[in-house]
């Protein structure tokens, strides 16, 4: 089985529209979460969000896209996809090759058009140009056509672990010979739908989120997208290579539809499985980009699972303190951040942390540091008990 | 409304809101715990019962943790409703 | 690739218990809706939160996983999973003006609701994946299962697909002209010569692993094609046939997803033309109706054809000269955009008296 290398990255989030902007913001410990809100919801401007600074119109202009049925979810994805493909230096024939796969992830899909969908679904006399844009696959069907891609195309939706699973699926396609390159990632935008959903579960914080803090009061929603170009080792001779995907594992907590078990079997088994896949021992992981949503449930369970596996966990942080929880995009965005950790041999500060959780005593990284890193882990957990851990390694 | 009548109505509403289709109001005892043993409801149900109290009786519970004291059984729910209902 | 050991199917036909597909259940109101079994075995506490899609998905999976000692994971393809529940939550958002809302619909609105309910019910902490790429959602699940079984030779997986006709998707597809405007019975679907088809739904589950002994069938090869261009589709199909399919011997049955939509029939005719003249051609959408993961129903039928060595007359489009079925090719496309080919072959010891 071929080794899988990452040769291109692209990201857009509340702290920047490109990788370089995200990197600078992470180094400075910039928080992109604010009460400004450009999306249609009663809670826009009231609750804090990690909103991308570009409006939907600005994104369309920037990307020269004016097709009917285009959603913000798609625009964010295209912005990050273009950057990743350019970064990897893929030629158009490489992009359209039958051996180049596109694996996308999203949970919101076209549901960001909450009002349009309501009217389309309930009003018998009216219909918008978005009828076939609501489902999750629509974003990646559109992209496949836009870039005339001919390889394997897939959309994964396992809630908040979706794009971590897209990365894993892409890597496995290459290892198993179904593709030689895979462009993998995820996208989600802020929407009335998810805001009200998380609000109905009482897990949205009315203040800026405080991952791994004793007094955390819930998550902030964010939006964004990230894509990674994966290539098999033999195709990367004389190419810039960021990192290797060495470990991945998906498990299910099998406990509850929307919360993790106290024992944290799902997170524990995912991290353990990823280590086994990478043939690493816990002590070899230098840093973890934790799921760290700042909900009461996630942070204690994830902390305990890390303690259970690592004894003393390695340095960790939650970049959700910078950009909020970007749902289906979070696994891919955090993968890009892990690659920055490895490439520049540095860790970024976790923000808004004051006091360790009673009983765990764990403290995330609190200041920017240069440090030697060989293997870093990224955790993503989602509704339905879906848990995924990825490991990226220096080449 | 008489206390008994309220409890009857409440049981019907609990069945409807939580989609307990196979249950009848008389299957729920007034002092049967809603969570854990008894009906065995879970945390999502508790949030849905908070919505019930709001939609049917105009009672707002901001912190779900406060709900736990109110949502013990039909008796405690009915007591709370009688005391705080706004509709 | 891998072997199929057990399968269970909830469809508009009598496929769940004591399958009898000789008698064709007729469509009603231009739709083919599933015959839903009673949900014994699903605890009421769990059942009350399930919409139809999740219910039939779980219903078709339970007979395969109940009492099963070793299940390594659950891999599901669904195009519309969770969407019906999403609409219910959306309606609440608008009707209560983003006020205090019931979270149940939101929690169940994730596409992975069926896969996660199955993990809960079977206490399965293994791999749990949900593929949602519309017309190739099931095919991606198949590819995923094939990779898992290559990576883990001794594992067994639950592989399946589920989609339902829901109010919203029915309306959208209808507006976009995917359904027939005139009244058409499934009995006359292929004679209709008009645009559109009749919608269907279903849940089909398979237990798959690498064990040849006692298997119902082998899923030998798969490919997906993403193109609206007939020539592109043809070329990829020819490559696939030459490089993968014919290596296993000659095809004796082509099972196509022809669905009465005269705008896209040419794709199926093109595929038929690639077959030798002695190949039998059969169709299945008059049984299942059209839905994004209907190819899973075709795979169920292929297993049945291989184990029973017969197919009902109403499926046959063209009777070939070969007798018996050993090597089946399934070709299906969704809206002329997403195409797939699956090759299903007989296993030497699978044919003797084994029934689904």
Please state the oligomeric state of the protein chains shown: heterotrimer
Helicity level of chain B: 55-70%
- Terminal CA distance of chain B: 12 Å
Strand order of the largest sheet of chain C: 3-2-4-5-1-6-11-10-7-8-9
Unreliable spans of chain C are none
Strand composition percent of chain B: under 5%
Tell me the total number of β-strands of chain B: 0
Mind telling me the CATH class of the largest domain in chain C? Alpha Beta
Let me know the average pLDDT of chain C.
Answer: 93
Query: What Rg of chain B do the Cα atoms give?
Result: 12 Å
Structure description:
The complex is a heterotrimer of chains A (395), B (87) and C (356). By secondary structure, chain A is an alpha/beta fold. Chain A has twelve helices and 15 strands. With 87 residues, chain B is mainly alpha-helical. The radius of gyration of chain B is 12 Å and the shape is globular. The mean pLDDT of chain B is 91. Chain C has helices spanning 44-47, 52-65, 83-95, 104-108, 113-122, 137-151, 167-175, 230-245, 265-273, 285-288, 295-308; strands at 2-10, 73-77, 127-131, 156-163, 202-209, 217-226, 253-256, 280-283, 316-318, 327-334, 338-345. In chain C, helix 2 runs parallel beside helix 5 (113-122). With 356 residues, chain C is of the alpha/beta class. Chain C is built from eleven helices and eleven strands. The mean pLDDT of chain C is 93. Chain C has an eleven-stranded mixed beta sheet with strand order 3-2-4-5-1-6-11-10-7-8-9, with helices on both faces. Chains in contact: A-B, A-C, B-C. The B-C interface holds B 17-22, 40, 44, 47-48, 50-51, 54-55, 60 and C 44-45, 48-49, 100-104, 107.
Task: Please give a quick description of this structure.
The complex is a heterotrimer of chains A (395), B (87) and C (356). Chain A has 395 residues and is of the alpha/beta class.
Record the SSE blueprint.
The complex is a heterotrimer of chains A (395), B (87) and C (356).
Chain A: E1 4-12, H1 19-28, E2 33-34, E3 49-50, H2 56-63, H3 72-88, H4 92-96, E4 100-105, H5 114-122, H6 137-146, E5 153-156, H7 162-175, E6 181-188, H8 192-200, E7 221-222, E8 224-232, E9 243-252, H9 265-278, E10 287-289, H10 296-310, E11 315-317, H11 320-323, H12 330-344, E12 346-347, E13 369-370, E14 375-382, E15 386-393
Helix pairs in contact in A: 2-3, 3-6, 7-12, 9-10
Chain B: H1 3-17, H2 43-57, H3 64-70, H4 74-84
Helix pairs in contact in B: 1-4
Chain C: E1 2-10, H1 44-47, H2 52-65, E2 73-77, H3 83-95, H4 104-108, H5 113-122, E3 127-131, H6 137-151, E4 156-163, H7 167-175, E5 202-209, E6 217-226, H8 230-245, E7 253-256, H9 265-273, E8 280-283, H10 285-288, H11 295-308, E9 316-318, E10 327-334, E11 338-345
Parallel strand pairs in C: 2-3, 2-4, 7-8, 7-10
Antiparallel strand pairs in C: 1-5, 1-6, 4-5, 6-11, 8-9, 10-11
Helix pairs in contact in C: 2-5, 8-9
